[in-house]
Fold:
Amino acid sequence: MSSCPRSQVRSFWNDKTVLLTGATGNLGLAFLAKILHNTSVKRIYAVVRGAGYQARLMALWEKHLPDTPWDERIVAIEGDMSRRGLGLGKSVVETLRKEVEIIVHMAADINLRSTIPTLFLTNVEGSLTLALVASTFPKLALYIHTSTSYVNANLPNLSQRFGAPPMSWEAWPFSYAYTKHLCERILTKRMKDAGTLDRLLINHPAVVGPSFTAPYPMYEIPGSTPTTSLLLMELESVAKARAKGIVAPAGQVTGFSNGRNIFDEVPTDIVVNITIAHGAYGTRGVVHASASHSNGACYREIFDEAFGYMSERDYSPGGVHHIRGIMGIFKLCGMEWMFRDDRTRELLKRMTNEDLRDFNPDVRLVDMKRYHRDRTLKWIKVVKAEVVRKNEEGATLMGEPITAQGKEVEETHRPKASL
Structure:
């Protein structure tokens, strides 16, 4: 009779005390919901910035996870990744030092338009300070560092490995990736020198998108999923143009500026499952949480899908023209990388049936056509209503009115939580 547990994930995470950063972010909140609902984790210390940190986390939970009861195993602690010493009090650090066995670092400044000095505070200095503090935790068995697939975007061959030869920052498509690259290089060297590299798991998500199924389909915190943000900008521009009676001309462009490049977007819940499953099954080093190699979609397909749901009164077929405009906003949208997910493919062969059912990290399970359709249907009604409501007041879809409206639509179409 086999001695293997039915769930190695639960066997690993049960009764563990975890320190989580980024709990108020899109990925961190989804991780919280998943790990609490599906394992008997003992306690999760969640670092939250600012005064009223407990109330802030609870309010965010209630807003985005209204069908999921608050869990008393969550202990919010005040901290700030951009402050000296992470803003943690001495007594708090001492408590963490005595109890924490796993660290899941998901906090980051993900603004793709921010400058290197701004991003450096959280993505490099803050992350390295966390690792330095963690090095004094005697019970620490696993340190999960959430980075990005684009840390080595300067290289033609993007493999799942630690670090890469140093280069000038101009070699990266955006500053966020460069700061993540810097942090990884220093972090891995320090842990290697300390003899603790065998505790380090680095997760490389590509572009994180809304969830496919958990905690519910299309879960996302507005402003945290880049493709949705770009889609909203584009839908808004088209709707505003049509409201003025303007028909955008169809453009004739060549190369990746026509949107035929593979765009790597992976749902939030797949990233969370990759984090949880790889940690439990002993994976160390780098893993890619990506879709380009296994289940990618052309960037233009995402927008063709979106505009296909707008009537002729709302949209004139000038898709290439609009996509070209988006390419000018972020280099990321007009370039192509293929991130291999071999380590997750290998992990699938070792996972128990129970773990495959509850923590499946396989991005190939996602019906991408349905995924893009569902996101469009969620937001397109919001865009039309907001353009009419604001009547050319110049409001952006990234502001509070849209966040509130988006929540209403989200609640209207959201099924029961599926964690």
